[in-house]
Structures are given as C-alpha cells and as structure tokens.
Sequence to fold (482 residues):
Amino acid sequence: MEPAGALVVFLFMAMQILFGSVHAHGGSRVAGPLSFSDRILGMQHELEMAAASPAVYSSPSSPQAGGSNSRVYRVTEYGADPTGKRDSTGALLAAMSAAIRGPSDGFLMDGIVNYDGARISLEGGSYLISRPLRFPSGGAGNLVIHGGTLRASDDFPTVGFLIDLSAPATKAAASSSYNYEYITLRDLMLDSNFRGGGVFVPNSLRISIDNCYIAHFSTEGISVHGGHETYIRNSFLGQHITAGSDPGERKFSGTAINLMGNDNAVTDVVIFSAAVGVMISGQANTLSGVHCYNKAAGFGGTGIYLKLPENTQTRIVNCYLDYTGIVAEDPVQLDIVDSFFYGDAYVTLKSINGVVNGVNIVNNMFSGSNKGVDIVRLDQSNGPFIRVDQVVVDRNNVVGMRLRSTVARGFARGNGTSWTVDFGPVLLFPNRLNHVQYSLSTSGGGLFPRHCLRNTSENRVVVESDVAVPASVYVTVDQGGK
Ligand SMILES: *[C@@H]1O[C@H](CO)[C@@H](O)[C@H](O)[C@H]1NC(C)=O
Ligand SMILES: *[C@@H]1O[C@H](CO)[C@@H](O)[C@H](O)[C@H]1NC(C)=O
Fold:
C-alpha cells in the first residue's frame, strides 16, 4: 500500500472510531469499548498486515483463490462438490474462513471489519451440507455469499439453519454490539430438506437477502432475532414446492419469515407454503408487495401474524393475501392499506388486553365467494376490546364478502314520530357509537316538528319527533374515536 493511501485509510478509520459511537443506533454494548489507543494500535497492526500481504489467502487447498488480487472465494477451489453428491460443509466453511482472513479495509460500524465486498461464490453449483454455515468469527461486514444452491443433508441438525449468522462464542471483535453488518445473501436456493431452517440472522445490522428461493424448511425459512434493518426482497419462500391447490396443504407447517427484531423490511416476496407466512414480534417493520398463499385460513393458516400487542408499529402496504389473512393482537399503530384480499381472506383483530389504537384498514380490495365472510373480524375470546381509539376501517371495496367498517351512513323513511337506522350489520365494534350526526327531512304539510336523537345503544340510531310527519332521516356514524 502506498504510504499516502495508508495515511488516508488511517485517518478514515480514526474518524470511524471517533464518530462511530455517535451513529450507533439502539442496542446496548455487550463489552466496554476498547480504549482509543488500543483501537488505533489494533488498526495499525491491521494496516501493517495489509501492507505486508495485499492478498492474504491462506487456505491450504487453494492459495490462489481465483487470482492474486481477486476477492472472489470460489468454493470449488476449497474442495466443494458442485454436483451436490459429496458433503461440502468443510470446503464451504474453509472458503468463508478465507474471506474472513482476507484483506479488509477499516470498519463499518465500530468493531465490524469491512471486507470491501469480498464474495464467496457458489459458482452456480449445488452443495450438500451437514452443518450450518457460520463464519469463524463475528464482527465482519461488507461480504457477499451468492450464486448457487445449498441443500441440507439427511443428517443436518433439525434445529439448525443452512446459513447462520450467529457469532461464535470466541468472537474476536467483541467491541461491536452487532454480530455482522451488511452481509448480502443473493441469488441462492436454500433447500432445508425438511430439516431445520434457511437463514438465521441474530443481532445483526443491514443484512440483505435478495433473490433467494428458500424451500423445504421444517422450522423457519428466515429467522431474524434482534438487530435491525434486515432487508428481505425479491424472494420466494415455501415449505413445499407448489403453485397452490396442493393436496397436502392442510399439513403445511413452519413459518416462512419470522421477524423478532425492529426496522426490517420485506418487499416483493412470495410465500407459497407454510403455516404462517410472516410472523412479526418486533416493532417498526414494513411489508410491501408480499404475496401470501402459504396456507388457507380455512385450514388454519395465517398469512401475516402480528404478535406484538400494544406496540405493533407495522405497515402492511400493497400486499396480496390470497386465501389467507392477517391476524393482529391488540394492535397499536398498524396500517393495512392498498392491499388485495382474495378468496374470502380477511383481517382479524384479536383482543389480548382489549386494546386497539391507531389502526388504519383503508383502501383495500376484498374478494370472496358470497359465503358471508366479514372483511374484518374481532376475536374477543380473551375479552372484549375496551380501549378503542383512532381506528379507521373505511373505503374498502368488497365483492362477495361482508363489509365491515367503523364509519357508516344510512337513512330511514316513514310517516310517524320515530325513525330507526340499524348499523349493526356494518359496524365493526358492537354497541359503540362515538359520533352521530343526523338530519331530518320532511315536506309534511307545513309542519315544523321538534325532533331529537333519542337512543344510540346497540349501534341503532333512533330519532323521534313530537308530531307525526312523513320524513326521511339521514344518519352518519363513526366509532373510531374516543
Ligand atoms: C301521516 O300519518 C298521519 C297520521 O298519523 C296522517 O294523518 C297523514 O296523512 C300521513 N301522511 C302521509 C303523507 O301519509
Ligand atoms: C335504548 O334502546 C335500548 C334497546 O335498544 C333500550 O334497552 C334502552 O332502554 C333505550 N334507552 C333509552 C334511554 O331509551
């Protein structure tokens, strides 16, 4: 390395250290930060290493690893069998180790070594593995694993994941509060062979899972625990490979995507078989363009399950729920908008402690088969919703299902002293009218009757007049607010 270049890198890394903790977002540190001088010394050491050997590829089986300056670690050069016959676990782990020992360039987050986009290439092959693939140490970032198929062997541990971003116990870079940052898993088919799961992402930051096909999981396709900003996009997940109407659908199990962390995004993803499509128990996640036909609601499946009562903070936008619905436990801050529900799919609001607040279910399309299925249902088996505020279920269009809403209009017409408009069949919450407005219109022979709103119980609006008149009464009700 040129001395001038080294100086620039050194200054850059020093700035990373000085300002790194300012940018840290959430999460507490596991270990106390190293002192400033320790870290500078550590970096000097690393710079010397890099200067001494610009390309450190020390795999015994393949010192070249695709050329002296290449940072592509081709797994066949470490002995992996691209035909998928022989067990390639050791070879793939060797390629991953080589990448972690390879050249690096400062840090991303403090303590996360920047590998400059080094790639572990599966070279379009299929590899049998008998153990989860883990990096030998944590604290790594800016690495790519891409381009091939991984298949679990018949003795793969059923609790494991094909790719596992756990940091080993002997994690060297204990100065980072995250295991990994900016690891990209791209263009991969992951076949769990009905033994365990696809990808495990614990306590990591900015992990990208892009254009992956994850099948045959028995537990979870992708499991995110803690950390934040795992982005899952343009991917296909299914326990069984099917295109719908599968004779075994009743038996589908497992969860395609389990988000137990915050600030993740699932975009443009199809989930074609699993008991649960997306399970969410962390905040501030967003789903967009997700098509779930994983298991019909009638067979006990759920498309999207929001299991974070009173702290939902989830946006579901432009999704396609296909014979399978959405369940939200005590939702507080939930958007379900611009989505399509097909095959009598519906939304369930499930009471845990009776709270529903800040929920918008608007501008969706619902299509069913005239079985009288409500577009939104309340599950009050644990008790009724008692704290209801800022709930808007409105402007959805419905074909072949039963409209449910928190806002409604109606009218009654007759000659007499009492007019009743019953909103029971359309309002979502029983016996709850927060706002009522009415107008009484009569052309009755010069009479100006006195009239008033008499009763609003059981979602029925009763208007009475002092004298009998032929009149129409128009009513607007809203049960969303306090
Ligand atoms: C309305 O009812 C009253 C009696 O209750 C009757 O005298 C009147 O003619 C009725 N008006 C109309 C328009 O039917
Ligand atoms: C309102 O109507 C309900 C029946 O729907 C009745 O039980 C209740 O007594 C009425 N309240 C008043 C004030 O008339």
About this structure: The pocket of 2-acetamido-2-deoxy-beta-D-glucopyranose (ligand 1) is lined by residues 415, 468, 470 (CB under 6 Å).
